[in-house]
Amino acid sequence: MKNTLAMVQAIAMQTLKSVTERDAVAAFSQRIAAMGMAHDQLLQQDWEAASLLSVVRPMLALHGDDGRIVASGPDIELGPKATVSISLMLHELATNATKHGSLSLPTGRVDLSWLIDESGGEPTLRVRWEEFGGPLVAEPTRRSFGSRLIEMGLLGKGGVQKRWLPTGLIAEFAASLADVQRP
Questions:
Q1: pLDDT tens digits for 85-136?
Q2: Distance CA 61, CA 94 (A)
């Protein structure tokens, strides 16, 4: 799979080399890289599972956050679909924070946290992305591909709440733990 993604990226870069809108080409390349990182984690476990921490760390490091993204929560096993979905979602959140949100200013930071909520009968993974110290933000007027990826949530099924506060974006995601861990 990794070789296939590398070939897709090489073909795309060769095909798109004359495209003048380099931001779109870079976004495409970075999304392929994010998928590649998710696949790397899955390959280490025979494509059956990946540790949430092993997905979070390289994804956030990709954005060179210099410690401005703090991640905390229990390490849980993710199934393949959740691994890819969460990798892409985190990539888009970090990209948006870098371009428009808290990470666009040197004083900005992000708190990424997650927990297993067992209060409702079925254990639920709850993930929270909260931005601080960036520019004043408002809900975007345009929905981009990245925004749609974020809205798909942890498994492509929704379960997303987003709020644009003057202090920054807060995005909360929820999915049943059983679905997140499904092979």
A1: 888 888 889 888 988 899 999 999 999 999 999 998 899 999 999 999 999 9
A2: 10
Give how far the C-alpha of residue 96 lies from the chain's centroid of Cα atoms, to the nearest Å.
10
Cα distance between residue 143 and residue 160, in whole Å: 15
Find tokens 């067992």 and name the residue.
118
Order of strands across the sheet with 69-72?
Answer: 69-72, 109-117, 124-132, 168-176, 160-165
Task: Give the helix/strand (H/E) hosting 125.
Answer: strand 124-132
- Burial (CB count <10 Å: 0-12, 13-18, 19+), residue 96: buried
Least Cα distance to 171 among 101, 75, 116 occurs for: 101
Which residue type sits at 117?
A: D
With tokens 């004043």, the residue in question is 136
pLDDT digits (tens, 9 = 90+) for 114-127: 999 999 889 999 99
Q: pLDDT class for 29, splitting at 50, 70, 90? A: low
Cα–Cα distance, 71 to 88 (Å, whole number): 16
C-alpha pair distances (Å), 31 with each of 8, 37, 78, 105, 161: 12, 10, 20, 23, 23
